[in-house]
Design a protein that fits this description.
Helices cover 39% and strands 29% of the residues. The protein has helices at 2-11, 23-53, 135-153; strands at 55-68, 78-88, 91-96, 110-116, 119-125.
Length: 154
């Protein structure tokens, strides 16, 4: 490995031998990873609180949007996005699925909708769904960066 790095540095000009990653870079990785992990914890807590205070209601699919993957040039594999209508305090609200389905949902089919009673526009399809970014993304990035910073110290 050292031979390869020295070869690269030789090509790019006169340099001293590779001595490793600077401590500031390792500290930066560790700091960013810690921030990402704490952000994941914060989002996870916020999501858990939202799930505890939200309500579940039965909604009805009123239309189904059809989209195609960019790689699907022939249009053989559409992705379906149902639009579900639900009623709160005699007001109608609609929500479109944020994840597509490979099978066609039928108009009139019932689906569960979880919503915030104080703001029904904050809603998600499904019993255990919540709107927003999933915290697992931040946990994965934070842990990955933390492992990278440890490996760079070796």
């Amino acid at each position: 490995m050292t031979y390869i790095l020295n070869s690269i540095f030789l090509i790019s000009g006169k340099h001293s031998p590779f001595t490793g990653v600077p401590p500031t870079v390792m500290a930066g990785f560790a700091l960013i990873s810690t921030v990402l992990i704490f952000l994941g914890i914060f989002i996870s807590h916020k999501r858990k609180t939202w799930l505890q205070h939200s309500k579940i209601i039965q909604g009805e699919i009123v239309e189904v949007g059809k989209r195609y993957n960019r790689g699907d040039r022939s249009g053989q594999n559409p992705i379906f996005f149902p639009v579900v209508s639900f009623c709160v305090n005699e007001r109608q609200f609609k929500i479109e699925a944020d994840k597509g389905m490979s099978m066609l949902s039928q108009v009139g089919q019932k689906m569960q909708v979880r919503y915030n009673p104080k703001n029904p526009y904050e809603s998600a399809l499904g019993e255990s769904s919540a709107p927003g970014i999933k915290p697992s993304l931040f946990f994965a990035l934070g842990i990955g960066l933390f492992i990278a910073s440890i490996l760079l110290m070796l």
